[in-house]
Amino acid sequence: MKRTPMTLRGAEALRAELKKLKSEARPNIIKAIAEARGHGDLSENAEYHAAREQQGFIEGRIKEIEGKLANAEVIDPLNLPHTGKVVFGAIVELQDQAGDVRVEYQIVGEDEADIRARRLSVSSPIARALVGKVEGDVVEVAAPGGTRSYEILVIRFG
User: Which three-class secondary structure state does DSSP give residue 140?
Assistant: First the structure.
């Protein structure tokens, strides 16, 4: 099976969510199901059916997170050799050639991507264009509004 790259921060966030689901959400929903059962006829008991549906969601999410962690290749960007090239985990400062706008992104695993937090999936078009490049390189990225050019100003880790 193919390993999925994930930053240390991303793996820790998934582990924290898994712990919360197992130690809080799962016991709470089991208690809610038991209470709903006590209200009588299960065929017309909306609380019971809602609690069972929620239990299915929680159990599904637990399995999903466990699978992601089992297949994760956790990479701490601070421990990577610094070759001067953009690699997974790098924080890259870019200059948009068209609008004189500076942007900064970190290249992360797919599950960690969050454009508002300036984290790009390693499989995104921008990240794919950046990987392997060095400071001073100009990359072309196909965007919905047309091709954009970015100059790599700074590459750092951490």
Answer: strand
